[in-house]
C-alpha cells in the first residue's frame, strides 16, 4: 500500500514539474517561433499544398468556426460509412461485423467530439481497419481541433485590437505534427518495450495452466493507446480499457498512461500564460485547478484504500483496500488516482470499474465532469474555465460599479449572454436527459436498463449523461446502454456538449479581440490576483456544482449514507 501511495505522489510530481516547460514549448509552436521540431515544416508545407491551404491567410472568428465545423462534418460521414461497412473492409482477421446504424451513429459522434463513449466492446466491436482509420484518426483530429480552438482564443486575447484570430488549419496541423505525434511516438515506444502488442495478427488461442483454451485478442494496440491518453480521448482498444493487461501491462505503464492523460491539459494552462504574456494569471488559474484536482485525489485515495464498511463488519480483512472491480497489479490507490485524473479531463479511460468504486469516489468523478473545467479536455478544458472567467469579471464589475473588463477589453452584454448560455447548457443536457431516462425506467421496469435498483441505478443514468455532456466517455457500466434510446439520446448530448461551448467561447474571444484594447482601469479587480481567482472558484462552485446537488443527493450521496 505504501508503494502505491508513493506512486501516486511520484505521478503528481511529474505532472506538476513537466507541464511548465511543455506549456512554454506549446506557446512557441502556436506563435510560430523557433522550436526543436522545425524539421516538421516541410511536412506541414506539403499538407498545405496538397489541401490547397494558404497558411498565411488570417481568419476572423466566423471563418475559424466554419473551418472547424466543416472538417468535423466531413469526418463524421467518413466514420459512419466505415463503421457500418467494416465487415466487408480489409484488416479484419477476426471477422467482426459492421455496426448497426444507431450504434455507428453513437460511436462516430462519440469519437468525433473527443468523448469516446463506447457502447460496444473494443476488440469485438471493431476491426483493425476501423480501429486505425476511424478511432485512431479521430483521436488525433478531435484533440487537435480542441487545441486549435484554444490557440485561436489565445491569439485573440494576446493581440491588441484585431479582427482575426489566426488560421485554423495551421493551428490544427501544428497540433498534430509538433505536439501530439512526437509525444505519442515516445509513449508508444515505451508501451511496446513493456509488452503492449503491436501487430496485425488475429486472435491467439493459448492453453492455460489449468489445461483450458483461451482466446487472446491483440492487434495494433501500442499505436492507439498513446493518442487515446495524450489527446484526452480515452476509448479502450480492449473492452476493459486500461484495466486490460495488454493495454496497461504493469505499474510503470499505469503511471505513464495516467500521466499522459493530464500532462497536455495542464500544459495548455501555462501555454496561455506564455502566449498572452499573462503568466501570473495562468499561474493563478493553474493553482485553482490543481487544488481542486489534488483535493479529489486525496479524498478518493482515502476512500478506496480504507475499504468497504460492509465487508469490515463481516470481519474480512481489507489490507489492499476496496478491491471490487480493480486489478491486483494496479491496486486501490492507483485506481483512485486514475479515476480522478480521467474525470478532471475529458479522457474517460479507466483502469478499474468506476461503477464498483465507493460512493464518494463515484460522486467526485461525476462532480469533476459536471464542473468540467478542472483542466478538462486538451484545449477545451481551459476554454470552459474561460466562460466562468467572463462571468466572474462581470460580477466583479458590478461589485465596484465599473464596466467589467477582461485583459483590457470591456465585457458587455453580448459576451455575458453567450457565456451564460454556455455555462447553463451543460447542466441542462445532463439533468433533462437523466430525468427523461429515469421517468422511462420507472414507467417501464421490464425495459432492463438497470442492473442496480434505487440510488445506484439513478447514479448510473446520471453518470451516463454527465459523461456524454462533458465529452468524457467513462461510465458506470452496470447500465445497459447499447440500445437505440441510449445511443441516440447520448449522441445528441455529445454533439451539444462539444460544439455549443466551442462556438460560444470562440465567439466571445473574437468579439473581445475586435474591441479597443486599453490598460486595465483603476478600481477594477485585476484578473491576475488571488482575490479574483477565489471569486472565479466561488462562481464555479455556485453555478456548476450546486446545480447538480439535488441529483447527487438522490444518487451517490444517498448511496453513501446507506453504504
From TrEMBL:
A GO molecular-function descriptor: P-type potassium transmembrane transporter activity
Main location: membrane
Record's keyword terms, sorted: Cell membrane, Ion transport, Membrane, Potassium, Potassium transport, Transmembrane, Transmembrane helix, Transport
Transmembrane residue ranges: 6-27, 67-89, 132-158, 179-200, 251-274, 281-302, 382-400, 421-443, 492-513, 534-558
Topological category with respect to the lipid bilayer: Multi-pass membrane protein
Cellular component annotations (GO), alphabetically ordered: plasma membrane
InterPro entries attached to this UniProt entry: KdpA
Cellular compartment(s): Cell membrane
Pfam families reported for this sequence: KdpA
Record function comment: Part of the high-affinity ATP-driven potassium transport (or Kdp) system, which catalyzes the hydrolysis of ATP coupled with the electrogenic transport of potassium into the cytoplasm. This subunit binds the extracellular potassium ions and delivers the ions to the membrane domain of KdpB through an intramembrane tunnel.
Quaternary assembly: The system is composed of three essential subunits: KdpA, KdpB and KdpC.
Family: Belongs to the KdpA family.
HAMAP family: KdpA (MF_00275)
Protein's UniProt name: Potassium-transporting ATPase potassium-binding subunit
